[in-house]
Automatic annotation (TrEMBL):
It comes from Micromonospora peucetia. SUPFAM superfamilies: GroES-like, NAD(P)-binding Rossmann-fold domains. The lineage of its organism: Bacteria, Bacillati, Actinomycetota, Actinomycetes, Micromonosporales. This is Alcohol dehydrogenase catalytic domain-containing protein. The keyword Zinc applies. Belongs to the zinc-containing alcohol dehydrogenase family.
């Protein structure tokens, strides 16, 4: 079967023929029907994150179960599923206190999962490697969804939407009438914008370095679009009685944008870091400012969500029309077109590209 593989930092992406093991007793084989191209995949390529190579890309996907190991109880062949890149163990201290997104045992397994036809071991992104025709994953990494749910929407539920909606509802707990700034308008940020609007936030200030994002921001429900330049601070204050926003949500994953989110927030307000940044990108904040501004700085890992509970809930919302994801998908392509989708994402174009392998 075919998969999108990167072999070194910034190496060209290639669709390669790969082999996956048969599912173990506790594993399932899934035919991938739709997979989103997420910035975290780009971070696996461009050196922001340091994954082992060669690596099969992709971690935001949905498909159909083809084959299950004999101990699998969660799903049967034919089930439609969303892939979960952080399946919790349900047994550790964090899982026990109802915070499965902080599970101590989850995380990218370092053991390679697939191999090339010549026997070379292949790693898979976040335990999935979903930019591929198929994946073989532990049963805990699949979540059943209704067969009526379109695969494209289902795929986005597995990362951008769970992360974005969860950041607003569960991490930041945005309340009606609160002011919100969202910095970075990719698949994650645009899903934060619509969730903030749905939560009754007003204004919702959508911020990006790319002016082309203004139209997407408006469709997602932003009240204003602001350019991320030296005018940002003043523009935010003009719209918030001179104070700054109640909530700033950073959806880029860089120290500069975390600082911009910090500055955009009012005294006593909350900064939620949604973007996943690099190990060596240091955020400098003045000690006096930290004290005087009384702001809260926190992060949102996987939307502070329990995917087993929240993905089916979001799937129902898509089906009953209360959660519209159509505006998040700006391009569709095949596996062979996926390298170009990475290039578009690196240039800050569009929202999500969905790959239909
Ligand atoms: N200021 C404002 N916006 C910026 C800046 C900046 N300095 N730099 C980049 N951006 C914008 C880009 O123009 C783009 O619109 O941030 C957006 C990022 O969008 P995507 O590349 O589509 O990223 P996305 O998949 O949404 O992920 C965002 O969340 O899950 C994490 O690892 C992921 O850190 C990444 C973040
Ligand atoms: Zn992602």
């Amino acid at each position: 079967m075919r998969a999108l593989v990167v072999r070194a930092v910034d190496a060209p992406l290639r669709v390669e023929e790969i082999e996956l093991p048969a599912p173990g007793p506790d594993e399932v084989r899934v035919s991938v029907r739709a997979a989103g191209v997420c910035h975290s995949d780009l971070s696996m390529v461009n050196g922001t994150l340091g994954p082992p190579y060669p690596l099969v890309l992709g971690h935001e996907a949905a498909g159909v179960v083809l084959e299950v190991g004999h101990a699998v109880t969660r799903v049967a062949p034919g089930a439609h599923v969303v892939l979960n890149w952080a399946p919790p163990c349900r047994d550790c201290w964090y899982c026990g206190r109802g915070e499965p997104w902080l599970c101590e045992r989850t995380g990218s397994p370092s053991a390679p999962r697939g191999r090339t036809p010549t026997g070379e071991p292949l790693h898979v992104t976040l335990g999935l490697g979903a930019l591929a025709e198929q994946v073989v994953v532990p049963q805990e990494a699949v979540i059943g969804v209704p067969a009526e749910l379109p695969f494209e929407a289902a795929a986005l539920l597995g990362c951008a939407v769970l992360t974005g909606v969860g950041a607003v509802r569960r991490t930041a707990k945005v309340a009606p009438g609160e002011s919100v700034a969202v910095i970075g308008l990719g698949g994650v940020g645009l899903s934060v914008v619509s969730a903030a609007r749905a939560a009754g936030a007003d204004p919702v200030l959508a911020v990006d370095i790319s002016p082309a994002k203004a139209a997407l921001a408006a469709t997602a429900g932003a009240t204003d679009f602001l350019l991320a330049d030296e005018t940002l601070n003043r523009a935010v204050r003009e719209r918030t009685g001179g104070r700054g926003v109640d909530h700033a949500l950073e959806c880029v994953g860089r120290a500069t944008t975390i600082r911009a989110a910090w500055r955009a927030t009012r005294r006593g307000g909350q900064v939620t870091v949604v973007g996943m940044g690099a190990r060596d990108d240091i955020v400098g904040l003045a000690a006096l400012d930290i004290f005087h501004s009384a702001r809260t700085l926190r992060s949102s890992v996987y939307g502070s969500s329990d995917p087993d509970r929240d993905v089916p809930e979001l799937a129902r919302a898509v089906l009953d029309g209360t959660l519209d994801l159509a505006h998040l998908i700006t391009d569709r392509t095949t596996l062979d077109g996926a390298p170009e989708a990475f290039a578009r994402m690196a240039r800050g174009e569009g929202a999500r590209t969905v790959v239909l392998p």
